[in-house]
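Q: Okay, next protein. This is Diaminopimelate decarboxylase from Streptomyces filamentosus. I've checked the sequence twice, so it should be correct. Can you predict the 3D structure?
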Amino acid sequence: MHIPPHLWPATTTSGTDGLEIGGVLLSDIAEEFGTPAFVLDEDDFRARCRSWRAAFTGHDVFYAAKAFLCHQVATWLKDEGLGIDVCSAGELRTARRAGIPGSSVIFHGNNKSVAELAEAVDHGVSLVVVDSHDEIARLSDIATHRGTRQQVLVRVTPGVEAHTHAHITTGTDDQKFGFSLATGSAHRAISHALGAPGLELVGLHSHLGSQILRPDVFETAADRLVGLMADTARTHGTLLRRLDLGGGLGIAYLPDDEPLDVRDLAPTVIDRVRKACAWAGVPMPRLAVEPGRAIAGPTTVTLYTVGTIKRQPGLRTWVSVDGGLSDNMRPALYDASYTAALAGRATARSTDEPVTVCGRHCESGDIVVDSARLPSDLAVGDLLAVPASGAYHRSMANNYNSQPRPPVVAVRDGAARVIVRRETIDDVLRLDVR
Ligand SMILES: Cc1ncc(COP(=O)(O)O)c(C=O)c1O
Ligand SMILES: N[C@@H](CCCC[NH3+])C(=O)O
């Protein structure tokens, strides 16, 4: 079977016993750990971390925890020298438990609680990205109370359309995130932050959206943010020394998708900022980026078992698997498209008409792969693998229909180990008060 390398985890191979990742047969994983399960290629994850670090040498790479975080992933980030972008006390706690120092953490969110802000200050989080006037005042009070000053970035919406799904677009003017550049709101937030006694404003932040496939949008944003740095220097005499361009780099979900490579994007963006700074007469800032999907997404497949196959003359064929909406909300939320492949055996049979792979949940929108090319001898009990499942799958998994969430199994050098265990029905019921 052909395995497009840009779509599957780096160590995936296909043989007579089906697919193998990290030297472990997916059929062995299904037998030992059950399905549905997320199978994560640890070498691929670590290699992607290194590739981002190398591409942004001299700048900061904060992995966006929301894409997928667990204790082991946090330890890999630490090993590979990446920082972490967290947006909740839970993500911060995971980072802390793994021994990630505050100096490697950036804290996000449009409505961080007082307790979260206090924990961030107490843990010595390097940067808090402020997102509202309420928060500027609140964080300043918290820091002042503790006799310290918190370094902050102001989040700016630079009015750049990222050409991605509307629900994951965040850099246009009218957003719940950030302060709009076009309306003067960002300038006012900068003045407020500069005047807040408990804060030290060190730079700006913008995040244009997610699953972005075009480099020019990052360049446009860079130009506008450098313009705002120059305005700040002129108006306040303050030289901002940090510029965080967020995350958002897209990945391949389908064979024809052509994502950007960070090794190409990084020099383009760095050069653009340098030129914009020279033109505007401000010093080159230290940059930061916050990749989530581009690191975690391609490293993981979801492994399912086929439970039923429904063929109705004149209508499409429905292949039902043992997961669905509870482990992957993306098709329902963003019309996201995926592929699937037979995982547990090889077959000489060709593919005929595309079939729809659906989940087991009580929603007609519970689609896993709308139009899958699968062999004509596909049978109940077969294993299917869906690539590009590493970002915003396990982290957005849910218990709809009281479905326990799948485990994450990391594979490497011929060995498999559980890094997030499977939920049990008892786990799902444990919050019920009787
Ligand atoms: C502030 C911020 N940074 C980084 C990310 C990570 O985005 P992605 O996973 O698309 O790289 C997100 C999510 O879109 C975000 O909101
Ligand atoms: N959850 C989204 C990404 C959102 C990123 C958060 N700002 C997705 O699956 O594509």
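A: Here is a summary of the prediction. Residues 64, 66-67, 85, 108, 207, 210, 246-249, 290-294, 391 surround pyridoxal-5'-phosphate (ligand 1) (CB under 6 Å). The radius of gyration is 23 Å.
Q: Noted. On to the next one.
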